[in-house]
Amino acid sequence: MALIKREQIAGMNIHYMRYTLDYFLDAQVKAGIQSIEFWTGVPHYYLDPITYSDCKILKDKVQSRGLEIKVFTPENCMYQYQFAAVKPEIFEKSLQYFTNGIKATAELGCKVMQCNSGWGYFDEDREEAWKRSNEMLSKLAEVAKAEGVTLALEALRPEESNLVTTAKDTKRMFDEINHPNLKVLIDTTAMGVAGETLQDWFDLFGKDIIHTHFVDGDPYGHLVWGDGKHNLEQFLITLQKNGYTGYLGQEITDSRYFKDPVAHDIRNMKQFERFM
């Protein structure tokens, strides 16, 4: 049963953070992956409010292997830059950090950059943090428009954020910003933790869903398919039923995969190959 095309599977480099960029790219070729969602963590790429790595060098390395970067994902969970940063200094530095991320996305010939709501302090008024997130994302959507890039907004887990953690939260932020360059990303882990389904998200957003972080879970964990409790076939059927043609980002972050990431990518792809 053909439910997915090979080029829709987008390999990610988070679980290769202890390996070189060249090793990661060669591993994707070995695993039979053609598309990349590129995470900007060091040592693979450097991005800050002032500067960022040479996109031509990265693009040449990717293209020489017959790969393509389809989604650009600035690191925004482990480092200090986030979308609801407190004003003024951290907010402005975060704004410039993500602005540089959008510019790099465009230079790479990529059309989509991942984003989320960021988070507020748990001991402050949530609505104050919400306003900062809204302001940041609204500003960045305008930058994205100028650069020909679309932002893809995902929900986080409650441990990561007190802002956008559910489909309902995502809908509120999406509607408030109401910008053509801000669309929606489904993260199946955040979705599972929230007790939601893929269909719940498609019922709310339809064609405004342009990307997914499409991984197994229990419901926690960003796991290789087969290591969690999600039903891959049913998930793919839901995507097909709703006319989804975007990419499936393999945001594999559990530390169990860090030691031999290529073996896990190969194992992961074998799960998908049953439906190609």
UniProtKB/TrEMBL annotation:
Residues 27-269 form the Xylose isomerase-like TIM barrel domain. It comes from the Bacteria. It comes from Mesobacillus maritimus. The keyword Nucleotide-binding does not apply. It holds the Pfam family AP_endonuc_2. This is Sugar phosphate isomerase/epimerase. Keywords: Isomerase. GO terms for molecular function: isomerase activity.
